[in-house]
Amino acid sequence: MTLQRDYPVTERCIGPVAPLQDAPAWIYTLDNPYLHGVYAPTLHETATGALPVEGELPADLCGAYFRNGPNPRHAPMNRHHPFDGDGMLHAVYFQDGQASYRNRYVHTAALAEELQSGRSVSPGVMGPFDYGISRFGIKDTSNTDVLFHAGDLMTLWYNAGDPYRVDPLSLETRGHFDLAGRAGRRLSAHSKVDWATGELLFF
C-alpha cells in the first residue's frame, strides 16, 4: 500500500501513518486520527482455534470476554467521527486452559443497506442530518455496548437505538431484540441486567 497524501492532523495526534495489511484502502485518502493506527478499521471477520498462551490459563476458567466498538465498513459520506463506525463484536473464549478468538460485524438495518449499496448512505454525528432515516437523523450503528440477556447478547447504541440480538457463540446477528413483545423499543446504551432476577433495567 502506497500512502496517498500527507497526514498533518493524524501525525500530530498519534504519530506517523503506516500502511496496515487488513485496513480498507479508503482510509489512506483521509487525514483523520480516528481512522489510522490503533483506530484503523479492519474488514476481516475471523475465527481462530486455540491461541498461543503466555504463561498458563486456569483449567477451570470457562467463559467469554465480549467487546463492542466502532469499525466503519465504508468511507464516510461526510466528516468522520469515531462514534460513526459500524458495530463490531470481538470475543475471546476461555475453556480447558485454552483461549480462542472471533469477531463479527453487528448486521444492523443500516449496515445491510450500505452493503447492498456498496457505500455509505447514512450521515454521521458531524452531519448533515437526515431525519428520514431515524429520529436522530444519523445512522444507528449499534456500536457502543454489549450485554447478556435472555440467552443472547444484546448490542446497544449510545443514542438510544434499536437493540440487536447476537448469538454469543457464533456472533451472528439474529435481528432486533423483542422485549416482551415490544419490538422496536429503543434502549440506552447504558442498560443493565439484574443478575439476581434476570430483569433488564433501562431508560
Protein architecture, described:
The protein has helices at residues 8-14, 109-117; strands at residues 63-70, 87-95, 98-105, 145-149, 152-156, 164-166, 173-176, 192-193, 200-201. By secondary structure, it is mostly beta strands. It folds into two domains: 1-40, no CATH class; 44-201, no CATH class. The longest helix is centred in the middle third of the chain and has 9 residues, at 109-117. It is globular and about 50 Å long.
SSE topology sketch:
Elements: H1 8-14, E1 63-70, E2 87-95, E3 98-105, H2 109-117, E4 145-149, E5 152-156, E6 164-166, E7 173-176, E8 192-193, E9 200-201
Antiparallel strand pairs: 1-2, 2-3, 4-5, 5-6, 6-7, 8-9
Q: What can be said about this structure in brief?
A:
It is built from 2 helices and 9 strands; from the N terminus they run H-E-E-E-H-E-E-E-E-E-E.
Mean pLDDT: 88
What structural class should be given to the helix and strand makeup?
A: mainly beta
Count helical runs: 2
Strand content: 15-25%
> Spans with pLDDT under 50 lasting ≥5 residues?
none
What is the number of domains? 2
Helix proportion range: under 10%
- Strands of the biggest beta sheet: in what spatial order? 4-5-6-7
Radius of gyration: 18 Å
Question: Rough shape?
Answer: globular
Query: How many β-strand runs?
Result: 9
N to C succession of SSEs = HEEEHEEEEEE
Largest sheet: 4 strands, antiparallel
Distance between the termini: 46 Å
Question: Characteristics of this structure?
Answer:
203 residues, mainly beta, 2 domains, four-stranded antiparallel sheet, three-stranded antiparallel sheet, 2 helices, 8% helix
